[in-house]
Amino acid sequence: MASLVSFSLLKASASTPTTVISPPPSPTLETLDQRFGRKGIKFSESGDIPTTVELTVRNGSSLKLQISNGHISSYRPKVYWKDDGYEEVLHTLAGSRGGVGLVINELSQQTNSKAPSASAEWTVKDVDSDSIDALQVELGCMRGSLDISYVVSLYPLSMATAVIVKNNGRKAVNISSAILSHFNFKKNRSGSGVQGLRGCSYCTNPPPSSPFEILSPSESIKSEDSPGFFSFGWEPETKPGVWTVQDVPITVLKNKLSRVYSASPAERSKDFHRSAPSKYEVIDQGRGLFYRVIRMGFEEIYLSSPGLYSDKYGEDYFICTGPASILVPVTVNPGEEWRGAQVIEHDNL
Ligand SMILES: *[C@@H]1O[C@H](CO)[C@@H](O)[C@H](O)[C@H]1NC(C)=O
Ligand SMILES: *[C@@H]1O[C@H](CO)[C@@H](O)[C@H](O)[C@H]1NC(C)=O
Ligand SMILES: CC(=O)N[C@H]1CO[C@H](CO)[C@@H](O)[C@@H]1O
Question: Where does this protein have coiled-coil stretches (predicted)?
Fold first, then answer.
């Protein structure tokens, strides 16, 4: 297992060979708790929700991860200095939609479009902890020739999700991938935004399709009706494929948009190009909270907001964002591995 606190997962060059202990076919709650349960790491089942592991560090920040589908349904960090100073960061709907979802779509050889693939189930491979201020769960699954690990870590002021894709086959595999987080905002559309993408180029683009999506790819890029004459300064989003440079420091996410921020693919084929920022901040002005999103391994940032479409999905507002490789696929050559990660951290305290 990767070193815990320094989060050196992405720096380790050669992978240390790990002895893979294959878990029993369908581990029961008791066996999961026996094998992996420890202070701060608790397995539970309730109703028709898949078996879930809940991580809780000493200052009470917590996270819930559904095992079979790898879906993070809740992240409640401590954000205020009062006893019960926790806020739910994620927007999650019934049926494991929203939250934080890892998307890995294998692309078909000829067209580089999504190839149909059986959705493999995740199992727990390992857990780790450093006293109780850092907790980590590693899930694993095999998909075709790909051996995939998903490492979810919780710290007092941050959480991290990292993916390691190893190609055990004989052919290169192209994947489109993203770690998409749905941030929740209490009702206030105009108070939601991101900061830190100024100077970065972007284009309108749908998200990769995913079992965790709230808006489908086609729904995401459908333009919303003009909010009308009271909305001074509103402009429709540009057409897919048209690159623009972000020139305002804060992107207000009141209206509907679906964008990929990165250097354009043409630009990226050059030796020197300006890459997307490695971090940016999600602003929840209604609650006065900021969350920093850090990108590692991935070359692109996906960002979308539902605008008035959010009304269809309950009272609260939400956005979807995270590191991605959508426009240019990641190629994993035989015997090689690829690593990518996202960290969400805050210093609201
Ligand atoms: C992977 O994608 C690249 C273009 O991005 C293409 O040249 C290559 O043929 C693809 N490889 C496979 C195995 O699909
Ligand atoms: C929503 O956010 C805007 C911008 O921060 C603020 O001016 C307004 O008061 C907020 N409205 C509510 C109901 O919180
Ligand atoms: C490690 C850490 O940040 N711990 C903090 C958790 O929250 C309590 C307040 O309830 C702080 O006292 C700790 O410093």
Answer: none
